[in-house]
Amino acid sequence: MNPLVAPEAGTTGRAHGTALSVNVNKVALLRNTRHLGIPSVVRASTLCLQAGANGITVHPRPDERHVRASDVHEVAALLKDWPQAEYNIEGNPFHNLMAFIRAVRPQQATFVPDSEGQFTSDHGWDIAADGARLRPLIDECHALGVRVSLFMDPLPEAMTLARGIGADRVELYTEPYAAAHGTPAQATQLARFTAAAAAAQAAGLGVNAGHDLNQANLADFLRAVPGVQEVSIGHALVADALEVGLPETVRAYLRCIRAAQ
Length: 261
Known about the structure:
Strand order of the largest sheet: 1-2-3-4-5-6-7-8
Number of strands: 8
C-alpha cells in the first residue's frame, strides 16, 4: 500500500457503526458527456477514500450510460491499495452484473431488479416471484467469497424470504422516506423502515440503506433505524461536491453519521 495515497488502517472513520460507501456513477455520467476522460472516476474514488469514505459503489448498467466496464476494473485495481475499504458492485444479476462479480470478486454484490432501460432504481425484489432464480446466483457469489445484499422495499414480511434464499444483507430502498422527510408522513415512513430493519435483523440479515439519502435526511434516518451497517450515497453527495468539493462533502456525510450515533 502506498502511504502517500491511502491512510493508515483504521482512519476511515468506522471502528463500528454505519459505513459510508460513495456511489461514483454520477462522476462517470459527467465524464461521458465528453471524450476527455475527465472527471476521472478513479481520481474521484481516491479523493473520497482519502477523506474517510469506507468504500466505493458502482452500478454498471448494460448501456454504460455512466459507469463503464473499464471503470469497474480500474476501481478494483485502485482498491487493492485500500484493503480496509469495501468495493460494492450493484446491478441486475440477470443482465451484466455476474460477469463483473466473477472477474473482480468485490467484497459485496448488491442485486437490484432494474430493467435494462430503467432511469434509476425504484423498487425492490419480489422474492416470491424471483427467489428461485436468484438463489443459485447468490450461491455462486458465496463460492467466490462475495457477500450478497438484496435491494428491497421496507416490507417486514419479505425479510425472512430474502434470508431463505441465502442473502447476507438487504439494502432498504429509502426513496419513500426521503420523499416524506420534513412532511407529516415522515414518522409513518420511518416506522415502516424501522419495522423492516428489525425483521431483517431478526431473520439474520445485515441491513444497508440507500437511495435519495442526503445531508438533510441521513442522520434522522439512522437515529430511527438502528443497526444500519452501510449507506450507499451517490447523487446527492456528488451534487453537494459541486459546491464544496468531494473531500469536504465526504467529511460532511461522515459527520451526519457520527451525529446519528
